[in-house]
Specification:
Number of strands: 6
Number of helices: 10
Number of domains: 2
Largest sheet: 2 strands, antiparallel
Strand content: 5-15%
Length: 213
């Protein structure tokens, strides 16, 4: 068993370039150790441990520190997905907050929200007599909505993974959200007050038995 573990480690580290770029936020942490083999579309390293496909940075953390607790992410302090050195553990919310703290995300809210900066377009789409448009302060939206099943933190996580190039299906699998909900959020049909996307009305399904053309 020890021999097998050593062989896996040797195979892993031979795919790592330890002379990568210096940590962009804290040069004292030294250069990134860059994964040079297969990567996901978002730039994260892929590594095969036997018949199991794992993320390279997660394997590197677990190999050095032990098992990763369930529901915890391995985050990059250097913001370089291929790095397997500058890592820390955190919840998805911690990862998103780190994203905002470093200015890597732009959540438009308040006076910068689309409905404020494009009032004429909002009126054209929703109508001046639409109750929700006329009295937005009375509408329960986001987490306050009684049917809400996800949180604002999850929505921000979905948009962050979308910007990193993951597919709707991959995002849903990573965050435990259905693909349909991910599509609705990414296309502006739901949670626009959080994402800042222009709201798109949901398509109405034809009545049962109605004739189609």
């Amino acid at each position: 068993m020890a021999r097998k573990t050593r062989n896996i480690a040797e195979r892993f580290w031979e795919k790592v370039d330890k002379s990568g770029p210096i940590h962009p936020y804290d040069p004292a942490q030294g250069p990134c150790w860059v994964w040079t083999a297969g990567k996901t579309p978002a730039g994260y390293g892929n590594f095969s441990e036997g018949k199991v496909r794992v993320m390279a940075h997660r394997w590197a953390w677990a190999n050095a520190n032990g098992q990763i607790p369930e529901g915890i992410e391995v985050c990059h302090s250097c913001d370089r997905p291929a790095c397997v050195r500058h890592l820390f553990l955190g919840t998805h919310g911690d990862n998103i907050r780190d994203c905002f703290r470093k200015g890597r995300a732009n959540r438009c809210s308040g006076e910068r929200h689309w409905s404020k900066t494009h009032q004429q377009e909002a009126a054209r789409q929703f109508g001046e007599v639409n109750f929700a448009a006329a009295h937005p302060e009375l509408m329960a939206r986001g987490e306050r909505h009684p049917n809400a099943k996800i949180t604002e933190t999850t929505v921000l996580g979905i948009m962050d993974l979308k910007r990193r190039g993951l597919s709707h299906r991959e995002i849903g699998a990573a965050l435990g959200v259905s693909r349909e909900n991910v599509v609705a959020i990414c296309t502006g049909r739901t949670w626009c007050e959080v994402t800042g996307l222009p709201r798109r009305p949901c398509k109405k399904r034809p009545a049962r038995g109605a004739a189609t053309t």
